[in-house]
Amino acid sequence: MSTSSPNLLVTGGAGFIGSNLTLALQEKFPEARLTVIDDFRSGDFKNLRGYRGDFVAQNLATLDWREQFGNEKFDAIFHLASITDTTLHDQFVQVHDNVESFRRLLNFARPSTTRIVYASSASTYGPASAASVESNGAAPANIYAFSKTIMDNVAMREAQENPSWTIIGLRYFNVYGPREAHKGVPASMVYHLAQQMKAGQRPRIFKHGDQKRDFVYVKDVVEGSILALEANQSGIYNLGSGQARSFNELVDVLNKCLGTRFQPDYIENPHAHYQNFTEAGLDKVRSALGYQPAFSLERGVADYVQWLYGD
Ligand SMILES: NC(=O)c1ccc[n+]([C@@H]2O[C@H](COP(=O)([O-])OP(=O)(O)OC[C@H]3O[C@@H](n4cnc5c(N)ncnc54)[C@H](O)[C@@H]3O)[C@@H](O)[C@H]2O)c1
Fold this sequence. Notes:
Elements: E1 7-11, H1 16-28, E2 33-37, E3 54-56, H2 65-69, E4 76-79, H3 91-109, E5 115-121, H4 143-161, E6 167-172, E7 174-176, H5 189-198, E8 204-206, E9 212-213, E10 215-217, H6 218-227, E11 235-239, E12 245-246, H7 247-258, E13 265-267, H8 283-289, H9 297-309
Parallel strand pairs: 1-2, 1-4, 2-3, 4-5, 5-6, 6-11, 7-10, 8-13
Antiparallel strand pairs: 9-12
Helix pairs in contact: 1-6, 3-4, 5-7, 7-9
Nicotinamide-adenine-dinucleotide binds next to helix 1, helix 3, strand 5 and strand 7.
């Protein structure tokens, strides 16, 4: 970033990752002019405690950007707003709200070629049995993932047609960390299992706990997203920990951090199309953005448990 007082906008800034990103940007660029847009459909103002910037409460799927912002020039727009409840099966609403929100934003940003960093998702890969790399084709298994796939398609078409415009898509994997409690059921399994165990209950996981996830700590995701401010060409990149870890291992790590010795309570998996494996291939994002995750599952969960229950 060529200025120490950039004009930055974050959509979805009342949400989990968006609020962590907004507060990190405020800390990294104390002189920045910050604006958040969020319609609170799954966010919460409490996530933004200590935030000193502007807040626009608008639905991005219908927002008239020119009317709202005139010719204001942003240095970058981070677009994280999205329907994030993957169990919402209304195909029209998922695709309309997620894709049209993005299209409106792109239409506003195109004349000034404002840098765009947007949240895509590991779910675009669909079922996998090995590390997913960006050159894999998309295979969305639900309507949420389909909406993210269309956003990737639109973004790369725009980037191709406008070579001087930098558009970066980030495929977040299974993110966990502070400021996710407001999500309820869609919050991470790290959060839900920690809450069960903290309440003295055995952690409930699907039989037999050997399914694996790339659990990535939100601080790494925020760091990787901020690195995208420096990227000099458009692209889509994975953001994960780079390691698939099983739910059994997660329970072990939580037991260590919480000082408990719970055995998992294995339950039937009711989902026919369940992802048994996710892992981010990181070669491309390492070389393009210089991203290097700092938090192993052990370190991330320890940091998170301290944030949740520490004194
Ligand atoms: N959490 C994860 O593990 C994960 C994984 C992959 C991708 N992502 C993506 O990262 C982004 C952030 O996810 P999150 O986990 O912080 O979820 P979240 O639900 O906490 O945050 C999303 C925010 O967007 C807002 N929003 C949704 N639609 C909007 C609209 N039309 N107009 C205005 N505001 C709107 C919500 O109110 C909410 O505050 C999303 O794009 C999500 O798809 C998250």
